[in-house]
């Protein structure tokens, strides 16, 4: 109880205060009854240096002011109200008058505040309309205690101060997001949620079927999702990360719901994963170039096969150079020691195997009958049959499930120059150079090999 009489105020803790001037002082204000406060208005009487309780002012959350005056008079927003022993409601305040003075009562949640003013003394009472034994059958976790919530006046498990302090500094409701491989979880404290008038049972993730699960021992509530149950998770990506994002939110009210007593909630939580590195599988040429000395009838010549990084064939790969899978390379087949006025070199075929032998278990054709393999659009053949050298290009590859080595074989034939009969007619089915070569068949075609390894 708080008592204000004459120029003395005795507060709820029993401390005595003396009013020296002619002002208004707040005698009562509590978060248990939001928006309500009681002020004592003091004025001098016979002596200028002593003030006395003159009247009591009640201010309500609605803005209404009720003044308890001398002579049991009551003003509501400066208008006189006549009272009797029968209680009269003004806004949310119950007013009555008897021989002891004027009494005003206001209730909120489970609390009631009453003010009695007899013209010289104000008595203020605050009482709770709950039984302390309501905690007897309630289980609270180690970080909670049973008490009355300030905002609702209802009994429940309240967070202990030390436990709550580590989350209040970050304005959070629980632990940071726990991220695992293709999964994430967010754990919140039930008492922290209830302290903000949030009922965890109405919360869900993007998918309304995914709700929080409360541990009955710790009263911690966990929301989680994984690849098997994504719960509406949104997957995004930037240059370096893959982001899994979900949201804890309040259940949408149905059209039949008129009211609710829960604060709206929107808590985003995300997991960030680094994008997996795209590993470029490279290889090294085992030989920068290969040269063979060939004897074919009266012709004795050198045949060289060399790999290049550009179509101009002026930048040859070196043994130490790395080449990436699916990288385009150019291969030049060049002869020395031939009379280009009499014969030309024709690359009849090129193929790859997984072994040094030209008849390896696995074979992949690049050039067939002097023309690109029509099944491989990366193969291009240039100047074949035009002179004593030619070239072709293709995108590198590897054999699946092998030891990583690839051997390139090419078969080169000589053709006696006679018009354009030595030039392969690629794409023309009616007459190929084979008819011309049959008369000038090279009895000793050259085989040459170039290899790379991963």
UniProtKB/TrEMBL annotation:
<keyword id="KW-1015">Disulfide bond</keyword>
<dbReference type="Pfam" id="PF00100">
    <property type="entry name" value="Zona_pellucida"/>
</dbReference>
<dbReference type="Pfam" id="PF23344">
    <property type="entry name" value="ZP-N"/>
</dbReference>
<protein>
    <recommendedName>
        <fullName>ZP domain-containing protein</fullName>
    </recommendedName>
</protein>
<keyword id="KW-0732">Signal</keyword>
<dbReference type="InterPro" id="IPR055355">
    <property type="entry name" value="ZP-C"/>
</dbReference>
<dbReference type="InterPro" id="IPR055356">
    <property type="entry name" value="ZP-N"/>
</dbReference>
<feature type="domain" description="ZP">
    <location>
        <begin position="178"/>
        <end position="433"/>
    </location>
</feature>
<dbReference type="InterPro" id="IPR042235">
    <property type="entry name" value="ZP-C_dom"/>
</dbReference>
<keyword id="KW-0325">Glycoprotein</keyword>
<dbReference type="InterPro" id="IPR048290">
    <property type="entry name" value="ZP_chr"/>
</dbReference>
<dbReference type="InterPro" id="IPR001507">
    <property type="entry name" value="ZP_dom"/>
</dbReference>
């Amino acid at each position: 109880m708080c008592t204000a009489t004459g120029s003395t105020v005795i507060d709820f803790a029993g401390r005595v205060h003396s009013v020296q001037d002619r002002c208004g002082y707040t005698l009562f204000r509590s978060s248990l009854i939001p928006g309500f406060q009681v002020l004592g208005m003091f004025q001098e009487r016979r002596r200028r240096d002593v003030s006395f309780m003159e009247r009591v002012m009640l201010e309500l959350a609605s803005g209404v002011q009720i003044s308890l005056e001398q002579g049991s008079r009551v003003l509501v927003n400066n208008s006189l109200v006549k009272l009797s022993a029968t209680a009269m409601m003004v806004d949310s305040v119950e007013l009555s008058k008897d021989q002891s003075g004027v009494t005003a009562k206001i209730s909120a949640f489970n609390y009631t505040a009453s003010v009695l003013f007899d013209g010289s003394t104000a008595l203020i009472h605050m009482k709770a309309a709950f039984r302390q034994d309501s905690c007897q059958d309630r289980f609270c976790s180690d970080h909670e205690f049973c008490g009355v919530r300030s905002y609702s006046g209802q009994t429940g498990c309240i967070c202990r101060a030390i436990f709550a302090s580590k989350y209040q500094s970050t304005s959070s409701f629980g632990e940071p997001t726990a991220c695992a491989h293709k999964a994430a979880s967010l754990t919140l404290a039930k008492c922290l949620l209830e302290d903000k008038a949030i009922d965890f049972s109405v919360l869900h993730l993007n998918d309304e079927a995914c709700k929080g699960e409360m541990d009955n021992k710790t009263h911690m509530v966990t929301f989680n999702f994984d690849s098997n149950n994504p719960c509406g998770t949104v997957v995004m990506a930037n240059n370096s990360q893959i982001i899994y994002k979900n949201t804890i939110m309040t259940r949408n009210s149905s059209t039949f719901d008129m009211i609710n007593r829960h604060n709206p909630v929107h808590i985003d939580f995300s997991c960030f994963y680094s994008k997996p590195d795209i590993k470029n599988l490279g290889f090294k040429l085992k030989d920068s170039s290969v040269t063979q000395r060939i004897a074919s009838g009266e012709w004795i010549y050198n045949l060289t096969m060399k790999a290049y990084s550009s179509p101009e064939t002026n930048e040859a790969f070196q043994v130490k150079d790395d080449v990436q899978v699916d990288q385009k390379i150019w291969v030049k087949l060049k002869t020395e020691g031939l009379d280009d006025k009499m014969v030309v070199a024709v690359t009849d075929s090129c193929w790859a195997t997984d072994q040094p032998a030209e008849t390896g278990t696995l074979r992949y054709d690049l050039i067939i009958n002097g023309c690109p393999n029509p099944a491989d659009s990366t193969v291009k053949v240039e100047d074949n049959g035009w002179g004593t050298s030619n070239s072709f290009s293709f995108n590198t590859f590897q054999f699946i499930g092998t030891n990583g080595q690839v051997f390139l074989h090419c078969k080169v034939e000589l053709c006696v120059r006679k018009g354009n009969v030595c030039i392969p007619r690629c794409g023309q089915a009616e007459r190929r150079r084979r008819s011309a070569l049959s008369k000038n068949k090279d009895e000793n075609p050259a085989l040459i090999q170039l290899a790379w390894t991963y």
